[in-house]
Specification:
With 871 residues, this protein is of the alpha+beta class.
Length: 871
């Protein structure tokens, strides 16, 4: 378990302000730790962990007159260092360089007035502030979690940087007399200083995290993977099932990582980053984070650093904790199902739902596969990579440099970290396959009506008709699908939160605020008329189901919504239908289509391994490159970079994606580089474009964002289409369409009509911006006097017959044929403008030739006009 003073002793071996002045930075650590009565000493444990943490990062530095080049804010040569520049931060993926402009400005001004004395006095005040904040957070943690050192440490780790930023901002305002905006920037820059100013691709907190994690005995990289994922999620009949599946998987990963956090600390988890992680804020630290907890954001795979001596015990404990949680959840689900009439059995018969055959399904459904490999064990690095089949020319160049740096080819395994991750992944996948084959057979009987995979509860005891009669809506469930149905109730009991949109219809009706407009004008009357038909259709003065807004539901399909099968007054039903049809004439028909958005970062495995990160020189401070021996090799990733990328992905998924989606629809999953959301048709493109824009940013208010490429699939589909099939098609758009485009960074958009017609277009992200601002968009969406659908129809019908050398002329012909203005002059101008816009748009369409691009663009335009995607 965690020893909090020992944790702080190792963790704060470097001060957060190290980059301000490299010289004597250890003395500042000593002052900070003294505020909580910890005596600083650079013990062998600290030295070994610090050295191991830095082993993959530092390169061969050339000295000048026995002095090392240094980059800090001191601004002059001192002691064993000669100064070559101010710190910058280099983004770990995009390599964009960010300067610390506010810090530079303030320190330059102070130094010009008072010289080095100013810098030393400033550091003295800053060190005191760092110590005061640490003391405050330390005391808060001790008071909040008495006797629970693991949680005390988790609280300090999470909130020390947060509180330090707040303290620095107040200090900048009160002591330095900076204005609000400038003080905010000053604080952001201060808490995001680089760990190593010469190789500044990760922040000081990343180095502190990694050093603390590597201080355990025999530091070992441990991989956790929980499967199945897609089959479990896909077996969702309702949107609420879909949400529950995704969220439950994140909860299972929380339970797994909780074991590591209890034993070692949050910083031991490399991926996903647990800083600001909602599941840990809510369930581990007890913070009130509102409905943020409703978004699933923990992936099914994780990497952590643990003590190798405890790896087997950790594996056993993780599996036990997940198994016990699921069994308890199932027992509670059984109680809920019996009490709420989901299954119609007497309480005395409840025990039969807990028999071993059903409990075994719960125990064995998920495979939790855990593998590990030592980071500190020494081996011949060439032999390791050769045996794993990972030794190409780029790898050999990189290994040669590592050998030269350490003067040996027998090195700690951490020296080949990115290749070690690949080896661990390979071992892990092999173990997953082996463990999945170990599943025992289920009893023979009727299968679950939702997943069709597992034995239904009572499916081995009754014939099919009697089985159906036991269940609400005649829908027999297996233990796992019963857990899904109960899970939203469980989450609400633990968090007080309920998801806003429970069905795809709820989301579809958001289109152009249709439901809000209807409710304001006709809502009360509809509820009143529905109640006259049956009380079953109304609850809490609201319709029990959103599809009751459709007259077609009243015309057929009411019987399923009746709790008791009884006769209803058909005249009353007809009154509702007539009422709805009259309302539609006033405000338009209710929208029947919605959009599924799935997104995924491009080549993230290669990004994390470093295969696509470019040359090593791009990670080195520009002013120090002349003093560094730079190998002619690709930049292969390091644990530091992996942690930094994990934090960037967490910042994106936890904060930015949620901010974009807001109340526009239902954000189901946003973890790492993956996104799954259900959206109204008119918001799908806008939301997707904004998310891609955020993913492409390198920095946002001082915090890291991914700075990389992202692909997506958007499926626009009728609300009555089976959800499982719609999900499969949406993922196909992403994985087999967008992801197959060379260079990727592609959106695949599809419209699946109720008739079965299916239209697909592959475009680049900039097409959305260009089209949105175009005259063509305005003309296509005009009700009268616009271009109309004939233009699109004629091009799509004839484009495959166009001569390959005459595409431009054929396009001009179609524009002339369909585009007209109010007079000759306007017609000529409009035709030239729209033709030019079409040519611009074609630059952003994916295709192997001009015909494919034209077809792709006009298919996109058909989807836009048919589904009215743009507001």
């Amino acid at each position: 378990m965690v020893n909090i003073k020992e944790k702080l002793f190792v963790y704060l071996h470097d001060p957060p302000d190290k980059a301000l002045k490299i010289e004597n930075h250890e003395e500042r650590s000593k002052k900070i730790l003294s505020s909580v009565n910890i005596q600083y000493s650079r013990t062998d444990k600290v030295k070994q962990a610090d050295a191991l943490s830095s082993k993959t990062q530092r390169f061969i530095i050339r000295t000048k007159e026995n002095k090392e080049p240094v980059i800090d804010f001191l601004g002059r040569s001192s002691g064993k260092y000669f100064h070559v520049g101010y710190p910058v931060f280099i983004h770990p993926i995009s390599t964009e360089i960010k300067r610390y402009e506010t810090l530079e400005k303030y320190i330059d001004l102070g130094r010009s007035n008072r010289g080095e004395r100013f810098v030393n006095e400033f550091l003295e005040r800053v060190s005191k502030l760092e110590g005061d904040v640490l003391k405050e957070v330390f005391e808060d943690a001790s008071n909040k979690f008495k006797g629970e050192e693991s949680k005390q440490w988790a609280y300090i780790w999470q909130f020390y940087p947060v509180k330090l930023k707040e303290g620095v901002k107040e200090f900048a305002k009160s002591e330095l007399k900076l204005k609000e905006e400038e003080a905010e920037k000053f604080a952001e820059e201060f808490v995001n200083l680089p760990a190593d100013t010469r190789f500044p691709d990760h922040a000081i907190w990343t180095h502190l995290d990694l050093t603390s994690a590597l201080s355990v005995k025999d530091p070992t990289l441990l991989r956790i993977k929980i499967v199945p994922v897609q089959p479990f999620i896909a077996n969702s009949r309702k949107q609420l099932d879909l949400w529950a599946s995704s969220h439950l998987l994140s909860m299972l990963m929380y339970k797994a990582l909780e074991v590591i956090v209890d034993k070692f600390g949050l910083e031991h988890v490399i991926y996903p980053s647990l800083r600001d992680q909602p599941f840990f804020l809510k369930f581990y630290l007890g913070e009130n984070i509102g409905d943020e907890i409703l978004v699933a954001n923990l992936p099914n795979k994780a990497l952590a650093i643990v003590s190798g001596k405890e790896a087997e015990k950790i594996e056993e404990e993780i599996k036990k904790r997940i198994r016990d949680f699921l069994l308890q959840l199932y027992r509670e689900a059984v109680d809920w199902a019996v009490e709420n009439g989901v299954v119609k059995v007497d309480r005395s018969e409840k025990d039969s739902m807990l028999k071993e055959a059903y409990l075994k399904i719960v125990r064995e459904y998920f495979t939790v596969s855990i593998t590990w490999v030592s980071l500190s064990e020494k081996e011949d690095i060439y032999q390791v990579t050769e045996n794993a089949g990972l030794s190409d020319e780029d790898v050999k160049k990189w290994l040669k440099f590592a050998e030269k740096k350490e003067n040996s080819r027998v090195l700690e395994r951490i020296a080949i970290y990115p290749l070690l991750v690949k080896i661990l992944d390979s071992l892990g996948e092999r173990k997953v396959t082996e463990e999945r084959f170990e599943k025992s057979e289920q009893l023979k009987g009727w299968k679950c009506h939702v997943c069709g995979e597992n034995l239904a509860i009572f499916g081995d005891m009754y014939d099919h008709d009697n089985l159906k009669s036991l269940w609400l809506d005649e829908e027999p469930l297996c233990p796992m699908c019963l857990i899904k149905r109960y899970y939203p109730v469980w989450i609400r009991s633990k968090t007080g939160q309920k998801i806003r949109f429970e069905s795809v219809v709820d989301v579809a009706l958001l289109y152009k605020n249709w439901r809000k407009i209807f409710d304001e004008k006709y809502g009360k009357d509809l509820v009143s008329k529905a109640r006259e038909v049956s009380e079953d259709f109304v609850k809490d003065n609201m319709l029990v189901d959103s599809d009751l807004y459709y007259s077609s539901t009243w015309e057929s399909g009411l019987s399923k919504k009746l709790k008791n099968k009884k006769e209803i007054d058909e005249e009353k039903v007809k009154e509702v239908v007539d009422f709805l049809n009259a309302a539609y004439k006033e405000i338009g028909n209710p929208p029947k289509y919605y959009a599924i958005l799935v997104m995924d970062g491009d080549d993230m495995g290669k990004v994390i391994s470093g295969e696509v990160l470019g040359e090593i020189s791009t990670r080195i401070h520009p002013n120090i490159r002349d003093y560094v021996e730079i190998p002619e090799a690709k930049y292969y990733s390091t644990p530091q970079v992996h942690v930094a990328i994990s934090q960037a992905l967490a910042n994106f998924s936890i904060r930015e994606v949620r901010s974009v989606v807001k109340d526009e629809g239902l954000l189901i999953y946003a973890g790492g580089d993956d996104v799954l959301a259900i959206l109204p048709v008119d918001k799908a493109l806008e939301v997707a474009y904004k998310i891609r824009k955020e993913f492409g940013k390198s920095f946002e208010n001082g915090s890291l964002l991914p700075g990389w490429k992202l692909s997506a699939g958007i499926l626009i589909v009728h609300y009555k289409h089976p959800l499982y099939d719609a999900l499969e098609k949406a993922r196909d758009l992403l994985n087999n369409k967008a992801k197959n485009v060379p260079g990727k960074d592609t959106l695949a958009i599809g419209l699946l009509k109720r008739s079965g017609s299916y239209y697909i277009s592959l475009v680049g992200w900039e097409l959305i911006r260009v089209f949105y601002n175009s005259e063509l968009r305005k003309k296509l969406l005009e009700e009268k006097g616009g271009v109309g659908k004939r233009f699109i129809y004629h091009v799509l019908r004839e484009v495959d017959t166009w001569p390959k050398v005459g595409i431009d002329e054929m396009l001009k012909f179609e524009v002339i044929r369909h585009i007209r203005g109010r007079n000759k002059e306007e017609t000529k101008e409009l035709r030239e403008k729209i033709y030019g816009e079409i040519k611009d748009l074609l630059e952003h369409v994916r295709g192997n030739n001009e015909v494919e691009k034209v077809r792709g663009l006009f298919t996109f335009l058909k989807i836009i006009t048919d589904a009215e995607v743009f507001p």
